[in-house]
Design brief:
The chain is mostly helical. The chain contains 12 helices and no strands. Helix 11 runs antiparallel to helix 12. The longest helix is centred in the first third of the chain and has 35 residues.
Length: 290
């Protein structure tokens, strides 16, 4: 009995500290944030309760839904391209050749660059370096600054995102490829399968869990992208390339509408949560129990 009490006491001592930190850092601010969406909070004080007025205003805000639509397109494009490129790189660096460790390091390095610095580097490339190269070589695709047009600025953001995130997702796929049991591959060789058949019917099903993780991380990071958007396009031209996180930030801190900005942040959280849960639920159906 005494030993049981000691175990409970130890558990409480070690569990209460992280639980208290989690509550103070996440639960309390999140709860207060939801409360502020029903008030006229100005960043400092609350003078009155306004009910659902902030939510009604958010649903009627064309800029908010324009940013949400732009973000949805950005998320879909990033989700597909990042994982396709990452998986291709993983296949490349798992080939038994010299120098694959150098390639892995080179592909992973962009992930270590901060979003603001990354945006500034690519802003220079799209704005000055690539147009100069296009003029010298006669290649028309980069003749104009991509960041000055909504469509090309969208793809510029996607390109930079793919360049930054693919290396990180590659590591996940490399780990999954290397963990596939050799017995399964050897058995498929005996059955006379070729490389494509082994990839489609053996490797991909056994890597379903890696796809679930990578798709979730890409989805979350794309929805929450802020620093890259701020430094690369700044929402320009004319606010047409604002991702939802930048829209929420400007609503609160640039225009001083803290209650409506907080409301948009809550709606953004709901959208991200639904999208993430749906993606995980769908991906889980394809996982193979080993």
């Amino acid at each position: 009995m005494r030993t049981r009490r000691q175990e409970i006491r130890r558990f409480l001592v070690f569990a209460l500290v992280p639980l208290a930190i989690f509550t103070l850092v996440l639960v309390v601010p999140f709860t207060r944030g939801i409360y502020f969406t029903f008030t006229d909070w100005n960043g400092f004080d609350v003078t009155q309760f306004v009910g659902l007025d902030n939510y009604i205003a958010a649903f009627q805000n064309e800029d908010f839904w324009g940013s949400m639509l732009f973000t949805a397109g950005y998320v879909v494009a990033s989700l597909i391209l990042v994982n396709v490129v990452a998986f291709g790189l993983a296949l490349l660096v798992t080939i038994p050749l010299r120098g694959v460790n150098v390639l892995r390091t080179a592909f992973f390095l962009p992930n270590l660059i901060g979003g603001v610095i990354l945006g500034l580097i690519w802003q220079f490339l799209f704005g000055q370096a690539l147009p100069t190269i296009a003029e010298a070589t006669g290649i028309p695709v980069f003749a104009e600054n991509w960041l000055l047009d909504t469509t090309t600025a969208f793809w510029a953001m996607v390109i930079v995102t793919v360049w930054q995130m693919s290396g990180y997702m590659m590591i996940i796929y490399v780990t999954a490829l290397m963990s596939i049991e050799q017995e399964a591959l050897e058995a498929s060789l005996i059955d006379g399968t070729n490389a494509v058949q082994r990839l489609v019917f053996i490797k991909l099903p056994l890597m379903a869990q890696a796809f679930t993780i990578s798709l979730f991380l890409t989805l979350r990071n794309a929805f929450m992208a802020f620093d890259l958007n701020l430094s690369l396009t700044g929402g320009n031209p004319y606010g047409t390339t604002e991702l939802i996180s930048l829209q929420v930030f400007r609503e609160a801190f640039s225009f001083g509408n803290f209650s409506s900005g907080q409301t948009q942040a809550v709606l953004m959280f709901v959208v991200i949560a639904i999208a993430a849960l749906a993606q995980v639920a769908i991906s889980k159906r394809f996982e193979v129990q080993r």
